[in-house]
Amino acid sequence: MSISGKKILIAVSGGIAAYKIHFLIRDFIKKGAEVQVIMTPDAEHFVTKLSLSTLSKKPVYSDFYGDNGNWNSHVELALWADVMIVAPCTANTLSKMIHGMCDNLVIATYMSAKCPVFIAPAMDLDMYAHPSTSKNLELAENYGHKIIPAESGELASGLVGQGRMAEPETIANTVENFFTYSGKTKSLEGKTVLITAGPTYEAIDPVRFIGNHSSGKMGFSLAEEASKRGAKVILISGPSTQVIHDKTIELHKVTSAREMLAKVFEFYEGVDIGIASAAVADYAPKEIAREKIKKNDESLTIELIKNPDILKTMGEKKTHQFLVGFALETQNEEENAKGKLEKKNLDMIVLNSLRDEGAGFKNDTNKIKIFTKTEKKEFSLKSKDEVAGDILDFVEAQLLK
């Protein structure tokens, strides 16, 4: 694990999202990290020292002096840490951090820290949108701190919007990625990568559609991996239950092939690398019934018309983009993939076969072959996250030629 043995200092401030910290601590401990928790006095209204210390296996401090009169040194706490996470970070604590209002143990420790600082803000909708909050977050970034943006959803006030603290899994992944990639060259920094993912659904009537079994896992894994390598990532996804953990990824949801085509060409001109991993429906109903079709007859005939070929259109309009396609085949796999590479003006194609166990739709694994006009490379069965790494390694090698 990239965080095994790391010393993680978590500073909890007084917000309802403090209850989520239990899950974050447990995750870090399971992965072999050491965790020390400190709290603002107000945080004790939301979580107890007992529960946090039980999970972290260390005493939890909220004041400069312990119950026995011992001094809790903010300097020692700060210098001990490999990373400091302020979560939840309320508007009050954020303001104190940025403007040096040092009136509690958390702020004193923060101001003594030499390690990277991650801030996971959490507050109500209007507070998060307030210009002072935006300015303080901007200043925090200028200080070199890393912001884990608040998410949208239902807030404690009953309002719905941005302000929820990022989920513990998102915070943990962000910190783990920091340690994994810290000091490494961001190989795709400065590049914009557009990825299509998932299926498309073509409506028959208001309740039925034509679709396929694509889960979107491969495309989402590619998006996460490209972002880790420093790329600006635009992910255009059909209906999928997959979630993005890296909030820097620009996610656009669509339903039909025509919607996906339109969204792709909103961005295509400014893209350096295009990866079309979506399983786009080849055909759509010619007419969409305005009302639910009743089950009156023994048979039903639906006339289908050909959908626009998104990948072919990307190939035709390609100017500077490096274009990657996918081929999922059941017969004559290599021949069909090579034909698609040529006909659609691709730079590279990724082939997977439904004949290979563990490959294709819905699986967490995949087994691929990659073709260019002059090369062929085969890979063993791997997780889709690992496959995403192999694909992007191959893309980067081609860009260097």
Largest sheet: 8 strands, mixed
Task: Indicate the CATH topology of the largest domain.
Answer: Rossmann fold
* Main CATH class of the largest domain: Alpha Beta
Number of domains: 2
CA radius of gyration: 25 Å
Separate helix tally: 13
Would you identify the regions where 5 or more consecutive residues have pLDDT less than 50?
Answer: none
Q: How does CATH name the architecture of the largest domain?
A: 3-Layer(aba) Sandwich
What is the CA-CA span between the terminal residues?
Answer: 34 Å
From the spread of the alpha carbons, the general shape counts as: elongated
Q: Report mean pLDDT, rounded to a whole number.
A: 92
CATH superfamily of the largest domain: CoaB-like
Q: Could you give the count of β-strands? A: 21
As laid out across the biggest beta sheet, the strand order is 12-11-8-13-16-17-19-20
Q: Share of helix among residues?
A: 25-40%
Strand fraction band? Answer: 15-25%
Provide the structure class. Answer: alpha/beta
Give a verbal description of the structure.
By secondary structure, this protein is α/β, with parallel strands linked by helices. It has two domains: 7-183, Rossmann fold (3-Layer(aba) Sandwich); 192-400, Rossmann fold. It has 13 helices and 21 strands. The protein has helices at 21-30, 49-56, 74-80, 91-99, 105-112, 125-129, 131-142, 168-181, 217-228, 257-267, 310-316, 333-343, 384-399, and strands at 7-12, 34-39, 83-89, 117-121, 146-147, 151-154, 160-164, 192-197, 202-203, 209-210, 232-237, 250-253, 273-276, 283-285, 304-306, 322-329, 348-353, 365-366, 369-371, 376-378, 382-383. Strands 12-11-8-13-16-17-19-20 form an eight-stranded mixed beta sheet, with helices on both faces. The chain has a five-stranded parallel beta sheet with strand order 2-1-3-4-5, sandwiched between helices. The chain has a two-stranded antiparallel sheet with strand order 6-7. Strand 9 and strand 10 form a beta hairpin. Helix 1 (21-30) packs parallel to helix 2 and helix 4 (91-99) crosses helix 7 (131-142). It is elongated and about 80 Å long. The two termini are 34 Å apart. The model has no long low-confidence stretch (mean pLDDT 92).
